[in-house]
Amino acid sequence: MTSFMSRRDLFLFAGFTGVVLLLPILAAPFGAAYPDLLQRFMIFGIFATGFNILFGLTGYLSFGHAAFFGIGSYAAMWSFKLLSLNAVPALLFALIVSGVFALAIGYVSLRRSGIYFSILTLAFAQMCYNLAYSVLTPITNGETGLRMALDDPRYLDRLFAEPAAGMPVPSLFGMSLGGWNGFYFSAFFLIASFLLAMRIFNSPFGLALKGIKSNQTRMNYTGFNTRPYTLTAFVISGMLAGLAGALLVVTDPLAGAERMRWTASGEVVLMTILGGVGTLVGPVIGAWIIKYFENIFSSFNANVLNNFYSFLPDGVREVAVTISSKFVGEGWHLSLGLVFVLIVVFLPGGLMEGFRRIAAWLGRMGNGSKRASQVGVQPAE
Amino acid sequence: MMEPVENVVLHVADVQKNFGGLRALSDIDLQVEEGKTHAIIGPNGAGKSTLLNVIIGRIPPTSGAVIFDGTVLTGRAPHEINQLGISRVFQTPEIFPDLTVLQNVMVPAFAKRDGDFRVNMLRSVESEKEIREEAEHLLEDFGLIGRRDDHAGALSRGDKRRLELAMCLIQHPRLLLLDEPTAGMSRHDTNTTIALLKKIKERGMTKVIIEHDMHVVFSLADKISVLAQGRIIATGLPHEIKEDPRVQEAYLGGVEAE
């Protein structure tokens, strides 16, 4: 075990696993302890973790990762329709299909770096998005979105049993994946993705990726063929995006093209930067915060605001409600934008840097008071 | 005038390089002996850096070839050339500013051990004891061990150069190319670097060094080639070069007068 994981990493992994599994309890005081939302925490946590392997570790900013998310969704849905309602083949199929797409798109895009790479990935994602709406309608069902139907063939399921009556829903070897089951199912994959990211961060492979981010010229003159390294990172992160997309279909059996829009690609960039680029936990926290506030803020309406400001006199209250209503409900992206600007300007390392600063500050306070109490007794060690 | 050289490890054969209509290198024929330090000197603009870039594969020659130990280097990618056993120190140090000093030295060791591409995820860097210990050893030799956990970007310019040298040496290259290893250094730093390079000499590694500081060249070189206006005008032992009237005319005279 020592060569695989250091004691510190073991603590980190155990802590992360603990927090994830206890989320139904920990999130309760925030009013977020319901399976549907927590499942999104897991899914977008996986998305951001995978994205961070490419962006945070290797230094390549993809603006098209939502394409792999969407491709994963469609692939999983086709597995539900054609093969089986079991989620395992659906996830496997999504991983394979998104991996193949990532290989092709990555192979071309990684010929450039910097802004040109970003633009290439954006172009590919927009192509996927437009194709889903136009030429590929037979596969994607266009604007309506792809959903399951009673008369889907499901060849694998029919080999073993007659289809049950009622609307088909995804399951895990006969176990329903609705409600908390779905949350724990997704949580398992978030924890597995986190473990994978940890392995990559601490391994010689990850060190090579960090080297590429820091100075690619030196890497080449040091004997590394950097192209396959960046491509491997790209495919891993694309596959994790596909996995996340597939998990979303397990919960919410409708695959639509809007998941591939550039705004969705931008969202995962925000999550990663908000939490802390290149840190292990940061992107997951960023994903949780964005999904949490999306959920809270977007549900606020004029009524809620009126109640909130009920202590104010009539005229003032209306002004307060009018102003704040621009920042909530449909306009919650405005609040998100503001928070994002504040973070980038004052905490470029994201929330993780904030935590580090607080920890350092507390450490100094602790040391200071310790030293103060030791004055006159004996010199500090 | 050129006597046959034994144990040639690097052979620059009839290299020409034109940039548009400008002839940067002409009729370059250079043979570097195994285990020796071969210096290439010449006034500014003589084509020294172009020659080094041709050797390392960064610039393709217009004609001619570079042969290292029987392998043609011309047209190969930088990482392939490195994997053949050639490391390079740049004029402005190329290091990994965002990694720690220790990691900077460990990264090249992985390229040496694992080849140009390997997805190694099962071990952690911390558990790579052999490589870490060797890196720490080198950092001790180079007086950088006190900074092992600092970000390399925070080092002074002189320390960065030393670090880059350590990054090359951990690969145990057969041939080390040094592009003005003391440029921009103080006298003191220059002397420490000369001492370091002399120490490496004992390891029997072949070195090609490009330099215009005569003090450095005459302290280190076993053999010197003088480049002027894209041509090699003389090759010989240090004392021969010192006495060669053509060289004095082209270069040395001006410098010794300083």
Automatic annotation (TrEMBL), chain A:
What are the TM regions of this chain, as residue ranges? 37-55, 86-108, 115-136, 183-209, 229-248, 268-289, 332-355
Topology relative to the membrane: Multi-pass membrane protein
The record's listing under CDD domains reads: TM_PBP1_LivM_like
In the UniProt record, does the keyword DNA-binding occur? no
- One Pfam match, by short name? BPD_transp_2
Q: Where in the cell is it found?
A: Cell membrane
Decide whether keyword Cell membrane is in the record: yes
Tell me which InterPro entries the record gives. ABC_transp_permease (IPR001851), LivM-like (IPR043428), TAT_signal (IPR006311)
So which domain of life are we looking at? Bacteria
Alphabetically ordered keywords of this record: Cell membrane, Membrane, Transmembrane, Transmembrane helix
Identify the PANTHER family for this entry. Answer: ABC TRANSPORTER ATP-BINDING PROTEIN (PTHR30482:SF17), HIGH-AFFINITY BRANCHED-CHAIN AMINO ACID TRANSPORT SYSTEM PERMEASE (PTHR30482)
What is the official name of this protein in its record?
Answer: Branched-chain amino acid ABC transporter permease
